[in-house]
Amino acid sequence: MDDRSFLDGLTDIVGPSGIATAAADLAPWLTDWRERVTGDALALVSPKNVGQVQAIVRLASEAGVVIVPQGGNTGMVAGGVPCPGDRAILLSLRKMNAIRSIDAADNSLTAEAGAILSNVHAAAEEHGRRFPLSLGAKDSATIGGLIATNAGGTQVLRFGSMRNLTLGVEAVLPDGSLFEGLSTLRKDNRGYDLRQLLAGSEGTLGIITAASLKLIPAAPHRTVAWIGLGSASDALALLRLLESEVGDAVESFELVPQAALELVLKHIPGTRAPLAGEHRWNVLTELRSASDPEDLRSQCESGLAGALDQGLIADAVIAESEGQAEAFWKIREVISEAERADGRAAKHDVSVPVSAMPRFIEDATQAVEDRFAGTRVVAFGHLGDGNVHFNVRAPASGDDAKWLAETGPQVSSFVHDLTHGVGGSLSAEHGIGQLKLSEFARVTDPTLLSALRAIKQALDPRGIMNPGKLVPLANPDDNP
Ligand code: FAD
Ligand code: 2HG
Ligand code: ZN
After folding, report:
1. Which residue, 305, 261, 302, is CA-closest to 284?
2. Mean pLDDT of 457-470
3. Ligand 1 geometric centre to CA of 76 (Å)
4. Which of 50, 430, 439 is nearest to 202 (CA)?
5. Order of all β-strands in the sheet with 43-45
6. For residues 24 and 44, what is the distance between their CA atoms, to the nearest angstrom?
7. 279 lines ligand 2 (CB under 6 A)
């Protein structure tokens, strides 16, 4: 089928308002958030219902055209944009954004794939419930994209990542059939779990059209503290101390180095440092429980006083109001934006055993900065999950784009080898996409890679679902 007939067929399915082919309409969606890849597409197609998604998939399969599912295009590994040179369509789920139902007694909510995370938060809150996964891109990231990347975020410590919070999935498979898996069962042991296979599949096995999500009771009061301290190992000791004081009320425990705070203050208007002095490391922690907010606050105060006595922390401030709590969170959530505004960096999303992370940060920073002269490591993020974004900034002088193209791959291999050496992962929460594909192939057990290819082949024998992402080709030289 030639391109013209294919596009006519798509227009018949979604109507003229559901398809765009003009370069200006496609451009914002063809480049990834980190501005690392710009792909090609014949059209941006925006179905309004599941039937249209099925018809699009069948037509693309017949025409041999690649489908790239896309939600908010906030992914960090260029999984949601086509590969350069692909004969592809961008399949946007953004118009399928309804909250289909909320069952407060069941603690569950069912939403279409294009529903934006902050809208899901608001819908749950209206019913006295909470959807406890959040991240900096919450105003753009969609439920489909979050499941497809098995996103993590800032509450994983207590509630797990997206796959732990996904009870059921509805998805169109590569042959156009519909998997009607929108169950909200807490227990269901009927063999292989297609829902869990689709979680983290990055659009390579099918198109998620809706999902049922786990809710928890609302806990409207929170205690948010910003703490200055001297080392990442003191930060981890602080986490364990707080947990012994307040149990699992500790929901978030995020590490922010002074260098990241400085980037935020420099690039993001309206931000200001929570503490008067400078500290090599900072922690942002949030505690929530159903108990009296004053109890939680005093437990937090006593935990922090204990930490001060033990010399674990240098200074701390507990937010006095929701506004101040939001201001602390803003600093944490805009680090990526500030980093992007400051220039190019080789970005890594590594996890190691939680107890090994402080040492890893110290040793790997030293090793990288010694080996690659002039680079500056900014390691921040989810210390409580053993996951930091170990980002290596280009030397301050010189052409950072050139540095990233020429030296970035060596830096990344070096960081991933260090990570692998302590039993870690090169992708804690962002996925593989296009950007990590060759490194994933390089450091991963060949048995696992064969199993991934076998699953892909079984479900998508024509290879139309988001090729060039996540599943490395058998011949390493063929990977981008
Ligand atoms: P997209 O970027 O559009 O797509 C992501 C992937 O999912 C692609 O492979 C795409 O093909 C696939 N996909 C999208 N929709 C579907 C669908 N319906 N069916 C099948 N496949 C689909 N991530 C974290 O884990 N933790 C964080 O703390 C975090 N913070 C972030 C902060 C910022 C400022 C930004 C910009 C991103 C952050 N992310 C974080 C990245 C995170 O992965 C994305 O925000 C989110 O998971 C992707 O959702 P999206 O709708 O934008 O998906
Ligand atoms: C975060 O935790 C995101 O803020 C983005 O996962 C990380 O930009 C990054 O490296
Ligand atoms: Zn993160």
Report:
1. 261
2. 97
3. 7
4. 430
5. 19-20, 43-45, 88-92, 66-70
6. 11
7. no
Backbone angles phi, psi at 408, to 5 degrees: -50, -50
Check whether 445 has a pLDDT greater than 90. Answer: yes
Q: Counting Cβ atoms within 10 Å, is residue 111 exposed (0-12), middle (13-18) or buried (19+)?
A: buried
Class of domain 3-92: alpha beta
In this predicted structure, what is the pLDDT of residue 480?
65
Count of CA atoms in the C-beta half-sphere (13 A) of 223:
26
**Which atom of ligand 1 sits closest to the CA of residue 208?**
19
The CATH fold assigned to 99-217 is: 3.30.465
**Distance, CA 85 to ligand 3 centroid (Å)?**
30
Coil, helix or strand for 170?
Answer: strand
The DSSP line for 62-80 is HHT-EEEEESSS--SSS-S
Q: How far apart are CA 184 and CA 167, in angstroms?
A: 5
Confidence of residue 476 (pLDDT cuts 50, 70, 90): low
The per-residue pLDDT for range 350-388, each reduced to its tens digit, is 999 999 999 999 999 999 999 999 999 999 999 999 999
Under 8 Å CB-to-CB from 294, ≥6 apart: which residues?
A: none
Radius of gyration of the chain from Cα atoms? 23
The residue count of the chain comes to: 480
Q: Beta partners for 171?
A: 179, 208
Residue nearest to atom 9 of ligand 2 (CA): 336
Distance (Å) of CA 212 to CA 112, 166, 168, 184: 9, 6, 5, 6
Class of domain 343-430: alpha beta
- Secondary element (H or E) of residue 333: helix 322-333
- Is it true that domain 221-335 has CATH number 3.30.70.2190? yes
The pair of structure tokens assigned to 288 is 């929530």
The pLDDT of residue 479: 64
Strand partners, 95: none
**Residue 382 CA, ligand 3 centroid: distance in Å:** 6
State how far the Cα of 68 lies from the Cα of 144, in Å rounded to an integer.
13
